[in-house]
Amino acid sequence: MAIDRRNLKVLANFCAAAADAMAFTLMRTAHSAFVKETEDFSCQIVTREGLAFANPRQFGAPWYSGIDYAPLLEMFDDYAEGDICITNDPYNGFVATHSPDIHIWKPVFHEGRIACFVVGHIHNTDVGGAVPASLSRSLNEIEQEGLRIPPVKLVEKGVLNPFIPEMIRANVRLPEQNLGDLHAQIASVNVGERKILEIVDRFGFDTFIEGVEQILDYAEAQVRQILTRVPDGDYFFADYADEDSVGGKPCRVALTLKVRGDEIVLDYTGSDPQLGSSLNMPTGGRERHPLVMVGLTYVLYTLDNSLLLNAGTLRPARAILPEGSVVNCQRPAAVGMRSLTCAMTQIVTVGAFAQALPHLMPAASPGGNAIMNIKTSGRNGRPVMASIGPVGGGGGGTPFGDGSDGAGGATGFLRNTPIEISEAEVPIRFLRYGLEPDSGAPGRHRGGLSAVMEFEVFSPETVVTARNRNRSIMPAWGVNGAKAGTVSRFLRNPGRADEVSLGNTDVINCGPGDVIRVVGPGAGGWGDPFLRDPEDVLDDVLKGAVSEESARRDYGVAIRERRVDEVETASLRAARPADPTPPVITYGAERLAFEAVWTNERYDLLTEFLATAPVGWRFFLKHRIFEAVEKFGSDIRPVADQMRGLFQEMKIRYGL
To answer: Is the dihedral of CA 36, 38, 41, 45 positive or negative?
Structure first.
């Protein structure tokens, strides 16, 4: 069968349907709620060289649509029919990027020749290690983050290697859950194999191989066309995770977007050094690594939602990832919380594009979803290890409407777990699970509201983990005159005499009667809130999204007896006329205060100095320099002289 435009579209749809079937199988047969409910998994069909050309259209994590499995595929040269390989080692191929993500891949043979590979991953709720759920900001080396399986054949010529399941059983906290999910993965790739063989039989082997390459070429051409709409230039943006370690300093992710015609470079120079915590990203310096390209994929799809999402999407782009930095760490750095840093790379990508296309880009989503997990026991002593869902912010306000409430932006693909399921699996009682009023930033188009979860614990020695806690200090930014979002909150026993604010703590011990409340961060708004339609503000007030006080203060809208007081509203808005040239980005007061000291000039000098130090020293030196800068006080020397004098002192003090 010849491949023309019509047949190419048919082939692409068939392949996407095969990926859908893989995802359905995985969802329907998985044991853990984090896979079957939250949908933290991926399924792809990749070329013989490892490039993804088909993904599920509505299911799972979209971060991996452009993934390249080549580093893993190349580790074996003796594939046979019926083989399935497995790994979760972040430093072995840089495809699995933290230990809970178990990747498997299977060659699809057609009449003795490999046609493609079917692949995928799931996030296991726990893979052992120092803390329940395996991940915490406090961990500082990969060995603390649980079981790691090097690339190995899980199934060889159709026969399961019994050592792998037994190794998993011996190292994780709830082995039946992990092994159930592993068998669901095997079922998923087996379904994918069957579907692909049907497609190859329909199109023919040679036509299939040719068509797959054309699918990638078509996506590349689409992206090149989109990029011609972006003005050439260099666009810089930076953002911060609250802490680079427990009680630490802000973690900076910096990006210079370099647009030249139909090509683009994402230069992450200026990002923080490799950290002494688990926020590091193990990319191996690969210039199209999916973790640093997700934001670009989101932006491109925002600009053209007909875009095919596959590895061809990334061909016109490359990333510069400085070695020994938070976006390209070296072993043995811990990497479990790399998803928080990855969310920041997405946010800075949107922020950089907002400089180029200020009237097309949304405001910031918070990127600080807390993934809530519980290790506890039932009254019968049965151990329980479960995820009870994400708690984060909504989507940023957009040029065309409000941001989505409860989930959106960087991790909007994560579904919530219904409380009926969580209460059936875990001995807790939910007191509240919904949306937090007044949490979305005011704007002409409001930022999405954050989620709030509150539950009571009933068992002793219960451990609650809240992975990816963030935005409790620096809120998500607004665009084109809108305000920044609200910060997140994490409380034990709210409203009681023993109330404790937990900040960004992510592992806490609880006992019977303890109540946990977590409120996600709110998203940024888009446009001047005083230009929002008063009837839309009234609607927000009536449905409980915005208080009457906020309506008056933030939107200039007076509400009386469930109606807009038009006269007073006009007076309120006239007293504060709209700014004809609002700032492209509006930050919260906390970030403005931080950057009054830590300017781009100071960061550039810090980056230059740290690059000369051994990787193992950089995190330590960053903290010592931050502490010294905090003491500068009345020192009025030029910043360059201050910093260079400080660097010289450090070199002498530590013999560098």
So the answer is: positive
Within 408-495, residue ranges assigned H as helices are 419-425
Residue 30's φ and ψ, nearest 5 degrees, are -65, 155
CA–CA gap between residue 401 and residue 406 (Å, rounded): 15
Helices in 74-138 by DSSP H: which ranges?
A: none
pLDDT tens-place string over residues 409-459: 777 777 888 889 889 889 999 999 999 999 999 999 999 999 999 999 999
pTM passes above 0.85: yes
The band of 589, judged by pLDDT with boundaries at 50, 70 and 90, is very high
Helices 639-654, 600-610: axis angle to 10 degrees equals 30
Q: How far apart are the C-alpha atoms of 513 and 458, rounded to whole Å?
A: 6
| 3 state SS of 69 | coil
Tracing tokens 């510069």 back to the chain, one arrives at: 320
**What helix, strand, coil percent values describe the chain, rounded to 5?**
35, 20, 45
Please give the structure tokens belonging to residue 327.
């976006």
How many CA within 13 A on the CB side of residue 393?
Answer: 39
In whole angstroms, give the CA distance from residue 273 to residue 21.
41
Name, in order, each residue with C-beta under 8 angstroms of 376's C-beta and a sequence gap of 6 or more. Answer: 384, 426, 427, 428, 457, 459, 461, 462, 463
What integer pLDDT is reported at residue 417 of this predicted model? 84
pLDDT band of 506, cuts 50, 70, 90: confident
Which three-class secondary structure state does DSSP give residue 538? helix
What single DSSP character describes residue 445?
Answer: B
Question: How high is the pLDDT of residue 1?
Answer: 57
Record the tokens describing residue 100, joined without a space: 């809970």
What's the whole-number average pLDDT of the chain? 93
> Among all chains, which residue has been given the structure tokens 């449905």?
543
Give the whole-angstrom CA distance, residue 404 versus residue 393.
Answer: 9
pLDDT score at 636: 77
Identity of residue 567: V
What is the distance between the alpha carbons of residues 87 and 231, in angstroms, rounded to a whole number? 42
Residue 635 has pLDDT above 80, yes or no: no
Q: How far apart are CA 552 and CA 351, in angstroms?
A: 29
- Structure confidence at residue 525 (pLDDT): 96
Helix (H) or strand (E) holding 466: strand 462-467
Rg of the chain over all Cα atoms, to the nearest angstrom: 25
State the Cα–Cα distance between residues 260 and 151, nearest whole angstrom. 39
Residue type, 3: I
For residues 586 and 478, the answer to whether their CB atoms sit within 8 Å is: yes
Task: Please give the angle made by the CA atoms of 395, 587 and 590, to the nearest 5 degrees.
Answer: 115
Render pLDDT for 278-325 as a digit per residue (tens, 0 to 9): 999 999 999 999 999 999 999 999 999 999 999 999 999 999 999 999
DSSP SS3 for 304: coil
Tokens of 236: 């810089």
What are the Cα distances from residue 610, in Å, to 329, 361, 617?
14, 33, 8
Burial 430-469 (b: 16+ CB within 10 A, else e): eeebebbbbbbbbbbbbbbbbbbbbbebbbeebbbbbbbb
Q: How far apart are CA 445 and CA 51, in angstroms?
A: 38
Place of tokens 């903290």: 623
Asked if residue 305 lies in contact with residue 279, where contact means CB atoms within 8 angstroms, the answer is: no
pLDDT in tens, 282-295: 999 999 999 999 99
- Separation in Å, CA 611 to CA 169, 287, 323, 334, 631: 42, 19, 9, 20, 24
User: CA-CA distance, 625 to 619, in Å (whole number)?
Assistant: 10
Cα–Cα distance measured from residue 253 to residue 236, given in angstroms and rounded to the nearest whole number: 11
Judge whether 35 and 123 are in contact, CB under 8 Å: yes
Alpha-carbon torsion, ordered 420, 424, 426, 431, to 10 deg: 40
